[in-house]
């Protein structure tokens, strides 16, 4: 019995099945906050992540939290006894994740006529970062980084990573006259929050792009520094 986490690869699964004809391969969907959400025998519907698990309700919502028509991609939202109760000391993030009594996963999916769920990727505008399937909220990492005396401003984004799918990157502005190494800052974050949330990449810039209202323009940060380096 072996479990492997990550987005499925049909080619890899097909090779596995051919080499192990007597093995049974199951596709499951879930996340740290809600496990399991759905699952099925891969042979039943290759590529699907199955119908909702026992005691689990799944709904697909649009950006206004309205149900989407069958076959239309929407955010996968869950109700289940297996859903977590909230993020530790992160009231706003918890309230946002549990809008209207549903846990919003930040993942997109579509439902077919048989009630089978098909994964369609992450919501493009979702700020949540998922290194190795774990959930990292930029706000939590930014708060930890700003606790360091050398940091004036920071914007945390997710970047592509060959090993983990996604990695945490911090784009920082130093306070005048202050210095800190990337390793020191990363270790500092790891001492304050879970180690898997620390930035794999840290860059220092003169200033961060702002919106007309004066807030950090996260999309512009992604465009300028969204590469894994």
Description of the molecule:
- The chain has 229 residues and is α+β, with helices and mostly antiparallel strands.
- It folds into two domains: 10-122, Luciferase, Domain 3 (Luciferase, domain 3, Roll); 131-225, ANL, C-terminal domain (GMP Synthetase, Chain A, domain 3, 2-Layer Sandwich).
- Helix content is 19%, strand content 28%.
- The chain has five helices and nine strands.
- The strands form three sheets. The protein has a four-stranded antiparallel sheet with strand order 3-4-5-6, with no helix packed on it.
- The longest helix is centred in the N-terminal third of the chain and has 10 residues, at 10-19.
Gist?
By secondary structure, the chain is α+β, with helices and mostly antiparallel strands. The chain has helices spanning 10-19, 91-97, 138-146, 182-190, 218-225, and strands at 26-31, 34-41, 57-61, 74-79, 103-111, 117-122, 151-161, 165-174, 201-204. The strands form 3 sheets. A 4-stranded antiparallel β-sheet has the order 3-4-5-6, with no helix packed on it. A 3-stranded mixed β-sheet has the order 7-8-9, sandwiched between helices. A two-stranded antiparallel ribbon has the order 1-2.
